[in-house]
Amino acid sequence: MRRSFEKKVSLLSAFLAVIVLLSSCSKSTSPKDPEKDLFVIGFSQVGSESDWRLANTRSMEETFTNAKGYELVMENARQQQENQIAAVRRFILENVDLIIIAPTTEEGWENVLTEAHEAGIPVIIMDRSVNIWNKDLYLTNVGSDFLNQGNQAVAWLEKETEGQFSAEDPLHILHLQGTYGATAQLLRTKALEVADEAHDDWQIDAQLYGDFTEAKGYEVTSEYLNSNQDIDVIYSENDNMTFGAMRALDEAGITYGEGGQVKIITFDATKKALQYCLDGKIDLCVECNPLHGPLVEELIKKYRAGEPIDKIVYIEEAVYTRQNLTQKFIDLRTY
Ligand code: AHR
Question: Domain 146-288+322-331 classified CATH 3.40.50.800?
Fold first, then answer.
């Protein structure tokens, strides 16, 4: 009696072990559910460093839904490229249908993209870019024209300050930089540095590292203001660093915006920044459009239909000052 009970128990354990083994195998090789037949997208997102990034994540989640036939497997890299590379390797093992990467920085992608290519998995680069020799390793690069954003900002500054400064008494610029090596940082910085070279009446007094976060923007600006308050312009490479810098200026009693000591140029144009702009606290908002979801979906549809797609696709963007903003426009902004 006891022996037959033990036998049943050991049979049951063996059965359960096989079930567990089978389910873990299918999980590590394929997340696809054949019943639902979803198109599985592995998405490696940079992180959640800014309001822009949160809006970008939301746009992807709202676009690639189960109801529309997608399964979006998103991994947050917490701004570390090594986390992104590990995530892409997991996607390859899981044999997803397509991989989307919003790369933290431009360098270091050749190997993992070659692995995806060899596995036959198409890759879309979104938001920023990668600097690789073999462009066949990805389908397309969808995102912002970051150099154009920077050029628009400096063109505005040139117009605003024309004839007011000289080589002896130059325009003092404080430059807040985003994550080093990210396309958004490299090209916004390039635009400012090229313009600065061409202007003997401009002077970049400092370039501070804000990593696209509000906390860092506040920290480095506060520290800087302890020893130097002679600033005419803050050129801040994203809204969150700008919000941090504004807090630091408030604490130091330095005025900014319309009629203030410091002009503020910011990139992203999120709802909060636009409101500050309309209220006269920020002078220029250069838009960086985070709503990539629908555009990426359109390209994926083309790819699946066997249609050609462009290697670089820029998203529509604009530039805002107090003059071309309305409260109604800001109220309708979703991010
Ligand atoms: O790559 C886009 C940039 O990254 C946005 O300007 C910034 O807010 C984000 O973190």
Answer: no
